[in-house]
Amino acid sequence: MARINQITYRAAYNSLALSTLGACPVWDAALKRFLATNCLQHADIEHGALSQASEQAAFERMRLESLYGSKWRGDPRAKPAVARLNEAYAAADNAWTEKFAEPYFQAVRDLVLVPAPTIAAAVFKADLIYAEEAWNDTGFEADCMQILQDDFARLTAIPDRSEWDRLVTRYEAVEAIRPEDTTDAIIDESGDLIEQIMAMPAPDASAVRWKLDHVLHTRDGACNDSYAASFLKQTIADYRHFLREA
Question: Residue 245: which residues within 8 A CB-CB, separation 6 or more?
Answer without folding.
Answer: 205
